[in-house]
User: What shape does this take?
Amino acid sequence: MKTTLNLNDHILRRAKRRAARDGITLTRFVEDALRASLMDPEPCHAFKLELKVVRGHAPPNVDISDRDALYDVLDRA
Assistant: This one.
């Protein structure tokens, strides 16, 4: 089927260069690009981050609102 498209000059020049480089016609290049664009994407599985919860019974060894106490603990390490 023949059709007329209005394409950006820069894009058309790049498409012609790529088609020539690949040794195919511009028509074939455009068909391949459209076919790739119209393919159904593979379903993307949602990523679920599972965090491990650790419960402790000891009181915290430092009050993080006390900057000096925090620095003392950090300096010990």
